[in-house]
Amino acid sequence: MSAIVFHSQPMSVYLWTATLAAEEKGIGWSVNALEAGSDAHRALNPFAKSPVLEHGQVRLYETLAIAHYIDRAFDGPALQPGDALGQARVLRWASLVNSFIFPSMTNGIAKERLLVPSQGGKTDEARVAEAVKEAALQMEVISADLDRHPFLAGGTLSIADCFLFPHLHFTSMTPEGQALLGRFPKAAAWLDAMRARPSFAATDQLAPRAA
Length: 211
Known about the structure:
- The protein is 61% helix and 9% strand.
- Strand 3 (52-55) and strand 4 form a beta hairpin.
- The chain has a 4-stranded mixed β-sheet, with helices on one face.
- The chain is globular, with a radius of gyration of 17 Å.
- It has helices spanning 13-25, 39-44, 63-73, 84-118, 125-148, 159-171, 175-183, 185-195, 198-203; strands at residues 4-8, 29-33, 52-55, 58-61.
- Helix 1 (13-25) packs parallel to helix 3, helix 4 (84-118) packs parallel to helix 6 (159-171) and helix 5 packs across helix 8.
- The chain has 211 residues and is an alpha+beta fold.
């Protein structure tokens, strides 16, 4: 039996963050697929967002809270620095991803280029162009931190990296994302290093899964 269960839509950048944290921590997990916005979903999270963590009698929603719980409730490699400044850097990155990177890279570029056409819609080119401008600034910030250390918040992987990775990975699947990575080699190298970790293969949302 898995140590934790994530209730979620199967394809979710925030589910991916949570499963990356679980893999890096070395704990077993499984996913209970939910229909987004269904009664079952709202019974677990009144805001109908994914994922929701279940661990015994514990249920949590909001990905930062989930990742923090995974780090503190289980043995394994620390996913947050022990010092105040290091912890603040992790929280800063989670906030940056939620407030800026998700709206621009994920919603403005990746979803417009990948998801909208796959569902028969037409990409909003103006939205993509505006998102690319915002993403360029975000890539400058990412690269500045990666100039100082190999991971976003320091010398070892942390929750911060788990938050950013899914967004940059999906964005990299678009022409605009590839162009941005070409301009920011530090971010491109970090993305390659993250993909080389066993946790990527174990959580890749685009990889075929056994029934």
